[in-house]
Amino acid sequence: MSSSRHNRVESFPPQVAPDCMLLILGTVPSLRSLELRQSYGHRFNLFWPFMGELFDAGPELAYAERIARLQRRGVGIWDVLQQCERPGSLDSSIVRESEVANDIPGLLRTHAGIRAIALNGSRAWQSFRRHVQPRLDPVLRERVTLLDLPSTSPANASMPRAAKFARWQELLRWVGRPS
Q: Is residue 3 part of a domain?
């Protein structure tokens, strides 16, 4: 920790299978996610309920099974930021100068089937645009469609659940059919 006021937060490794078609990127794990060692671990985060409705990978399943079901559908998850300083769990509390991005261009080069990146919330979108997009070569920029989605975080209370889910249904266009 660099100071008592800020906590260093680090991303989990990518949960991406070789045949991934759609990569969902959050900003960085919340404190509850870090405690549980599970992405989107806060019980009021809508990510896993949405994954249940879209890909049969809902919160009632064990975490490993949720990840496996997403991967079978061609969906991977990771975070834009590899590390940052953030007091608490709110993306708005991230210390901008402390942001270090994950090697998303490298992941895209090794997973040539990824055709879309869904960014979970405005801070993930902003961090991606600032740190990752400038590092994408023209081939990657052309290959990958960016999807700017509303945050599934409970802190994003300005949009009703149904409106958020309607936007998240766009993910179905980018993945294979259930097997």
A: no
